[in-house]
Protein: Carboxypeptidase S
Organism: Obba rivulosa
Amino acid sequence: MGTPSDKLDVDSVAFRFPDTRKNSVARQRRRACLRAAALVLLALLVYYISGLSWSGDLPELQVSSYRSKTVIDRQLFKGPLPPAENSTACPQVDVLFPGHNELDSDLDELYASSAFRSNAYDLLGGAIQIPTESYDDLAPVGQDPRWEIFGTFNDYIEQSFPVLHAKLKLTKVNTYALVYHWQGSNGSLLPVLLMAHEDVVPVEPTTIDDWIHPPYSGFYDGTWIWGRGSCDDKSSLIGILVAVESLIKKGFTPSRSVVLAFGIDEESAGTQGAGHLAGYLEETYGKDGLAMILDEGGGYGTPYGDDVLFATPATSEKGYLDARIEVSASGGHSSVPPPHTAIGMLSSMISALEAHPHETQLLRSGTPFLATQCFATYGPEYPEKLRWLAEEARTSDVALAKLKTGLLAADRRNSALLGTTQAVDLIQGGVKVNALPEHVEAIVNHRIAEHSSVDDVKQHILGVLLPIATKFNLTLDAFGKNISAGTGNGGHVVLSDAWGPGLEPSPVTPTGIADPFAILAGTIKATFTTTEGYDKKGVIVSPMLSLGNTDTARYWNLTKHIFRYDHSGEGAVYGDIHTINEARLAEAYIQQIRFYTKFILNTTDK
Ligand SMILES: [Zn+2]
């Protein structure tokens, strides 16, 4: 996955869970709780023996071994709910099995067969062998020969899925981006869109020897399928195609049309792929013309104890802004310098920005609060104090403030979920040691909080830098507006969008139990609970905020129901994506195919 102007490694933060587990503390607490439980039993025995009847006074006595004595005294703390139960704080839908249950189980049986599996591994391996690398400096399609490899990739797709190509209508958008339309039997239903991207992050040539198996081998070693794109995002792309091809071979026709759209530059600017696809899709299906969109994104894991799986589809994405700060000042010989050079003034500005980070907020209406409620309600090993605060915070502002402080203290990465981040990533200035710098600049990368906006960020930067511009006697031009600051004797400062307008935080997908989100959640649960070897007490599906952006950032007009989810998680990826030794657990890839199959059946059945 990538960002609007790229450089993206957010996958590594966006979909990992904050490490708030404190195992040794949990063990101590469990021991303390056992002692408390023994005392309670003893008390029960004493009361029983003394003939007093009070059974109605302790309605929650049995709820949890996590209750400390203090909490029991408060009579508030409920402990973790078993995942099979339900809570209004994080409503859960039931497992959703496809209505075509015979077809679904036939396909599960097929997907378990070794012939099917080895063919599926070959299909993914072949796709990995075509290095569809994405570069930041690619000229538009037609002007840069490096795009031609996408033609080879598309030929491979056409040859590999003959049944699908005979049935679905294929449109090539901007030559290499692909849209497939699978006509449904009921024209009154809005289509569902499944997305993936053809491109991959380039392999750094100096790291090729560090790969256990060559990055474009697509080698299956009996457990893993190796190579760039095996996880991001060719297992999704090929997984979707395998699921559709398999459904067609079984004679299935969806009631609701199914659309597939594959971009070609998600890992860089996105302008050549999704940028063109968005226009085509809106022209073809209309504004709000799709029922829902599923793209890559959040996965699953067991962050709060092995018993409960949490799947976290991203239902919103942070915004984005790269702000440029340019300082110009008079040059001259450095033997007679002013007290502050342009570099010194820019440094003051950078220091001031870092001294004034954007304020974090935990809002009850926001996705981070909702996700916290899900973890606190169902996570067996969620930190007790935070769990209690999370419950109190539903109604108490004091507890809400304490919960925010607690979350930030528990994991530094939570500040990225709760606020706009800023990072000064680029700086340039000075050409000669005996010449005063005349023009220096820095670029600050921002990921904008769900509750904020591009304009808020610009106002914040201006608010912090205006006093400094005044102090140094600089004139100030802030995002196209002349602001009264200094006389200009000291020079000039310009604030601007570094590469183009920023991206607002995405609209938040509704996650009520009557919304399409429920179909996704029920499908995730159906996939897990029918996976061979499934041994959890339950699956919780929690909405999540994505810290990075996918191609969906261009698709907001198409539907309000956008989900970013890969049926992938702990143990499914060897190492990490965007680096050496990207490999997909073959079994996990089969589970992706199962998930896509059930998702198509569930969205088009109902
Ligand atoms: Zn990706």
